[in-house]
Design a protein that fits this description.
With about 250 residues, this protein is mainly α. It has 3 domains: about 70 residues, Orthogonal Bundle (Multidrug-efflux Transporter Regulator, Chain: A, Domain 2); about 45 residues, no CATH class; about 110 residues, Antibiotic binding domain of TipA-like multidrug resistance regulators (Globin-like), CATH 1.10.490. Helices cover about 65% and strands about 5% of the residues. The chain contains 13 helices and 3 strands. The chain has a 3-stranded antiparallel sheet. Helix 10 crosses helix 13. InterPro entries: DNA-bd_dom_put_sf, MerR-type_HTH_dom, MerR_fam, TipA-like_antibiotic-bd, TipAS_dom.
């Protein structure tokens, strides 16, 4: 068996990460000595390999835990799935690298690029990591409407929308020390609801559910909290209050 430091050095992750995985019940060491040392077995290492494959594919920790601890979990099937998904990811990355290389030639005046060629490899709508969850929570219709709305926007319109969204995140982060039911918070959340409905059709239940996802899915949390620590939780509470008041 290996101690936690030995596992960390072998795998290339931090001891703190392994402690966190243990704390949340994702990867429990085979045993813990009386002195408090965590000891990992070969089976633990196989599970850790699965966890890190899922992490490489941007699965949230909670979902990974549910998958690897499921009685129906099949290691061979999971490895085949990892391989398929990573090959698809590599193909997409290879295309993006080609786009970069050709763009460099274009900047130097060596080749001409069509507008379509400039965006080869970018497919944020089809490959959106959150789309599956959105479909499961709110149904295909709302997601299809959002995708269609984005697809029909001009590049300039998409850029303007992104700028407005980022500014709203910053405005919310600046007041997240205030109560989420304060007039200022609710006014900004109203703007958030308005922006979301420019690219979709969100009911109050869907809006409230989206706020829950900001906290339950660490990918959302990490992205939102870049604007200010605790912003995801603040937005969830403010969105819940906003939705409940309008039901």
């Amino acid at each position: 068996m290996l101690r936690v430091k030995e596992v960390a050095d072998l795998v290339g992750i931090s001891v703190r990460t392994l402690h966190h995985y243990d704390d949340i019940g994702l990867l429990t060491p085979e045993k813990t000595t009386e002195a408090g040392y965590r000891l990992y077995s070969s089976e633990n290492l196989e599970t850790l390999q699965q966890i890190l494959f899922f992490r490489a594919l941007d699965f949230p920790l909670k979902q990974i835990r549910d998958i690897v601890q499921s009685p129906s979990f099949d290691q061979e099937e999971a490895l085949l799935m990892h391989r398929k998904m990573l090959l698809a990811k590599r193909q997409n990355l290879d295309q993006m690298i080609k786009t970069i290389d050709k763009s460099l030639q274009h900047v130097k005046g060596e080749v001409e690029m069509t507008d379509k060629e400039k965006f080869a490899g970018f497919d944020f709508i089809k490959n959106n990591a959150y789309e599956k969850e959105a479909r499961e929570r709110w149904g295909d219709e709302a997601v299809d409407q959002s995708n269609e709305a984005i697809a029909n926007m001009s590049d300039k319109k998409q850029e303007a929308l992104n700028t407005e969204i980022n500014q709203l995140y910053r405005d919310l982060a600046a007041i997240c020390h205030n109560p989420p039911d304060s007039p200022k918070a609710q006014s900004l959340i109203h703007e958030w609801y308005r922006l979301l409905n420019e690219i979709g059709d969100y009911s109050m239940d869907a809006f409230k559910g989206l706020g829950e996802l900001y906290v339950s899915d660490e990918r959302f949390t990490n992205n939102i909290d870049q604007f200010g620590e605790g912003l995801a939780i603040f937005m969830r509470e403010a969105m819940r209050i906003y939705a409940d008041r309008r039901k």
